[in-house]
């Protein structure tokens, strides 16, 4: 049959239909036809092209392994996705602004336009993502961390989730700065889904020769995700190091950098092609004076800023955890959320939009600026002091955002104060929305690197700030402030933003649990060990093997010395057992298991005194799928990732 | 006696002498005196100060753990050391230059001054380092990597090595650019020695409560070392990630950044204090135009540069390995090196200095420039094209180095060509010198980030270049070039610079071995397992225990079910056995071991089918000191770091 299917591709559609019919009618006849080599048009040209493609393929694979092409593809694809998303969101935001400006003069219509547009988009995002794939709501980063720690979560890396998350995220971000949500977290989730898909292609192309695991591909995808989001390769790699696991394999370092550079280069080149930027450079370029950027004593001020950001981050994290828990425990809201997610999103979005309406309170918090404009104004080198004293400077400024920051009659500092006071609570409220959205960017805009670092317990926001601005003159003060704010935020085992979500969502992520409750690191596996279901003994006969094959669905079975001693000898696969049965059915003399099958020795055994943390570490670093537990030489249990997940879930209940 | 010793500190020198005499004469009398609370001057003030110190201590420890103060001290100390070294070297280099200038007009005297000064310094460095601590010669980085992988190397972290390496390195670097050696590698070694010393202090202060291991302190020390060397915190941390091990623990990430920021901040503040720089900023600041730093198609040129650097790095690495092997295998030179190291150093230094003498060939390779000036001229934004056409520009330039690069009658390109052609071979020759010296900086000066990255198989030189110059406009092209040069250098399993040294010096560093010969990663421990010396059985009596305690010096002994079954039950310590013996000597009824002592279960058992790589990974990541090997339930061997070292050495012989 193979030949017939090959010939399909070269035929026109009508002819194909004909052959398919023929195939359905008479298969016997078709095989005869296929053996006669069907006629193909342009035979020599086709064979030349095929030969050429093969040669190129061989040359490319001799240059680098297939995995490197996957990494490059990952970087380019995520960058392309990021750029298209930005373009679409920009157009939708401009449409809203245009409509709002057209209605100038009629406050009621303007109010409706201002509030209903984001309300509709948030409702769309919620209903779309929940109807296609409910797992697509939220940031997705805590789930990705859980998957990278080794635990499998269903549907989080599927293509339907990719589709739902992409469309949902575009809708959310098009709602603009009234809803004040970001792109980073979901985008890392998206890039991980692309990575998982590329990994499937890679695995099917390589077969058993594959040299990389899915985990490695996902770490690379995380780095590429951040890099393509901002065009910032270095902070992408650092982010993947510090957020994604507890041990970073240096083997992944070069692939991460490679994919991140591919991603950021593509992202920036696309900006150049679309005439957004003149050349490949920082996305939010600053022009601080580089001669004497600051005097040494100013470092103390930066340190104080770090302390302040750390303190505010504690308030923010506490409020965030409180509101998430409130939404889940309050009877009315949780029932409302369970049935009417879309209505809840629409209500909250309407509320947020009403508060930020420019003709009421919005003018005090510069609400007409988009996320991008807010970031631009944050990183602008114009001194705020000058603007607050000089109104003509504001009018003459090439950047329109200064007029927003300094509305007639009020100083810049007044607006900034209101912004800082009000936005924090609006942001906390927006975090409860059940739609695909990121929380890093708003946090970054609100309090810059030191605050974002403190909220996420990371240092990569400091590098992100450096790469976004393209200036590294302030590297030492930024790092100092971020370190200090981190120290404050991490004191007394407060969970980070991601850890908090993991804990509240009860995700089986052990590092989060241990950070929140360090005593758990000494819990032994003794109480959790599940006895092994089916055990074979070395002298097992045909009936015993037959019984075990029928009663169990495992693919691998442990073999012990005798059922009494339970001394573990090794493992044996289902296929081996089936061969054993077949060979013994034909012969009269029944041989024992040991004589016929080679028992695969077990490389590693654990005792019941090992801690959950140690077992988790061994399984995730050595990429073991199954570990046997013995006590005083006797086999007493088995731990797979399924059991590990159960263990972590039981531990989570103990907090 | 304790009270007497405490009181010493508060007494004047004469009084102390008196008490010591008294102490020697009559100890009995002194104990009586000590119990009577000896008179101390300023009793109230002293107790106030002691209370104050205690309060400060408590407050500081409540703020952060002791380890964080150690990290800060590590950063500050290494930065201070780095700065003092730079200052001394600068003075010695200026002295040489001054003497050379004074002798203007007499070529013979100038030649003697030019050649004998570095010859003498190299001879001094060699003889000093070899007479105090022979391990202080060379870079030290490959040895540090080996120590960080878990294997102990004697004398590499001792204080005498610190002293010898410090003085030796200062002498080597004062020999200047004629010898063309650098600071980085030995300085990382120095910072590791400081780290090890601080760790000893920390461990003695904390006792059993210590939360950090020596390995963690050394990783932090490596980051702080690089950071203090250049004032570059981020590349310091990245360097410690990619060079130091195969798995990076994310737990070390914050300490690394903290120490690195402390180090670089101190280093830069010291520069400000000494009026070298106006404020805290990049060490080699550049002023490339930041508006449009480069056009997008120029990235292809950067990529080609990366390819070129990768190709040259292969030549360099090959020559480097060849000459190191030649020096070790050539009968005459190896015998000469074994007995007359100082003479060898002096000869090579004299040869290098003769070749670079400005009045002969030196003028073609800009030999009068120091390492720092070479780096400055490399990173200067003046276009070379302009200089080659415009001689007045050279004379008017504020930087004197352009006159060196463009000697009368020759263009800049001519000098640069000679520099590139000749310096490579001089550098290869200089690498054979048996003195404390680094090889990173010369490589960085020779071929910048892409070349240095290719030679060391790392990407952190790219970041180092960004941090040294303080401009991140070129981040994408630099990373692209470095990635491409790395890809070329890593092709066909060529060892990196550090791996090459590890292999030639036969250091027990498994990752280097596996990178050079990937088949070794599947070697099983079967052939290397050493049988356990002393084994106790659960019903062991007094005589058996007595015999084992006398015949073995181990601190921990495995306990098996019976000597026939050899089923491992757990371990028991020497102290427990001694208690067991004592309690049984007094009683008539002899109890068995099992009744009296609690057997500590073994958390982890390996089979003989585990590979050396897996065992190494488990031992280094889980920080296990001793792993038992069982086969089919029977104890058959033990692996400690000593056995691991032997295994790796045996593997190295197989290459």
Automatic annotation (TrEMBL), chains A, B:
GO terms for molecular function: voltage-gated chloride channel activity. It is a multi-pass membrane protein. GO terms for cellular component: chloride channel complex; plasma membrane. Its main location: membrane. The chain crosses the membrane at residues 68-89, 217-241, 299-318, 343-366, 410-431, 443-463. InterPro entries: CBS_dom_sf, Cl-channel_core, Cl_channel_volt-gated, ClC. Gene3D superfamilies: CBS-domain, Clc chloride channel. Pfam families: Voltage_CLC. Keywords: CBS domain, Chloride, Chloride channel, Ion channel, Ion transport, Membrane, Repeat, Transmembrane, Transmembrane helix, Transport. SUPFAM superfamilies: CBS-domain pair, Clc chloride channel. It is found in: Membrane. This is Chloride channel K isoform X2.
């Amino acid at each position: 049959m193979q030949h017939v299917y090959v010939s399909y591709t070269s035929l026109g559609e009508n002819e194909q239909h004909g052959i398919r019919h023929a195939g359905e009618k008479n298969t016997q006849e078709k095989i005869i036809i296929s053996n006669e080599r069907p006629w193909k048009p342009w035979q020599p040209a086709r064979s030349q092209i095929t030969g050429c493609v093969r040669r190129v393929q061989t040359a490319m694979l001799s240059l680098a392994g297939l995995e490197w092409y996957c990494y490059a593809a990952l970087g380019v694809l995520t960058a392309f996705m990021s750029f298209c998303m930005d373009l679409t969101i920009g157009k939708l935001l401009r449409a809203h602004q245009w409509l709002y400006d057209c209605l100038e003069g009629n406050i009621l219509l303007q109010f409706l336009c201002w509030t209903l547009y984001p309300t509709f988009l948030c409702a769309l995002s919620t209903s779309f993502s929940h109807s296609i794939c409910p797992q697509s709501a939220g940031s997705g980063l805590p789930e990705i961390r859980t998957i990278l720690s080794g635990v499998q979560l269903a549907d989080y890396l599927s293509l339907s989730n990719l589709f739902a998350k992409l469309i949902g995220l575009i809708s959310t971000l098009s709602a603009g700065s009234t809803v004040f949500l970001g792109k980073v977290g979901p985008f890392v989730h998206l890039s991980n889904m692309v990575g998982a898909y590329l990994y499937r292609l890679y695995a099917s192309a390589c077969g058993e020769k594959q040299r990389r695991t899915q985990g490695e591909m996902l770490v690379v995808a995380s780095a590429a995700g951040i890099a393509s989001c901002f065009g910032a390769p270095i902070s992408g790699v650092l982010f993947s190091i510090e957020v994604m696991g507890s041990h970073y394999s240096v083997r992944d370092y070069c692939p991460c950098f490679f994919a991140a550079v591919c991603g950021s280069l593509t992202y920036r080149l696309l900006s150049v092609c679309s005439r957004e930027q003149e050349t490949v450079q920082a996305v939010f370029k600053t022009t601080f004076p580089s001669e004497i950027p600051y005097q040494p004593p100013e470092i103390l001020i930066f340190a104080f800023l770090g302390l302040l950001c750390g303190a505010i981050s504690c308030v923010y994290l506490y409020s965030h955890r409180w509101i998430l828990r409130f939404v889940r425990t309050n009877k009315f809201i949780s029932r409302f959320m369970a049935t009417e997610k879309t209505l809840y999103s629409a209500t909250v979005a309407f509320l947020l939009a009403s508060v930020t309406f420019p003709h009421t309170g919005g003018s005090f918090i510069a609400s007409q600026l988009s996320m991008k404009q807010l970031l631009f104004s944050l990183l602008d080198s114009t001194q705020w002091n000058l603007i607050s004293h000089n109104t003509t400077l504001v009018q003459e400024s090439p950047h329109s955002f200064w007029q927003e920051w300094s509305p007639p009659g009020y100083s810049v500092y007044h607006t900034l104060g209101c912004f800082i006071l009000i936005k924090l609570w609006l942001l906390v409220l927006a975090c409860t929305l059940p739609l695909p959205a990121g929380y890093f960017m708003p946090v970054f805009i609100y309090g810059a690197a030191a605050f974002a670092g403190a909220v996420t317990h990371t240092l990569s926001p400091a590098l992100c700030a450096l790469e976004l601005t393209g200036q590294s003159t302030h590297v030492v003060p930024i790092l100092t402030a971020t370190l200090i704010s981190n120290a404050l935020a991490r004191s007394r085992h407060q969970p980070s933003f991601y850890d908090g979500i993991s804990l509240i969502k009860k995700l089986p992520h052990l590092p989060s649990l241990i950070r929140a409750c360090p005593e758990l690191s000494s819990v032994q596996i003794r109480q959790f060990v599940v006895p092994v279901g089916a055990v074979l003994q070395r002298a097992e006969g045909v009936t015993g093997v037959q019984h075990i094959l029928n009663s169990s669905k495992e693919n691998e079975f442990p073999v012990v010395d005798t059922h009494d001693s339970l001394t573990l000898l090794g493992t044996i696969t289902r296929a081996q057992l089936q061969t054993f049965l077949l060979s013994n059915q034909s012969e009269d003399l029944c041989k024992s298991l040991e004589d016929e099958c080679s028992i695969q020795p077990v490389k590693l055994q654990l005792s019941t005194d090992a801690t959950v943390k140690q077992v988790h570490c061994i399984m995730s670093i050595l990429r073991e799928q199954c570990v046997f537990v013995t006590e005083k030489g006797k086999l007493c249990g088995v731990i797979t990732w399924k059991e590990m997940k159960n263990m972590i879930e039981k531990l989570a209940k103990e907090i």
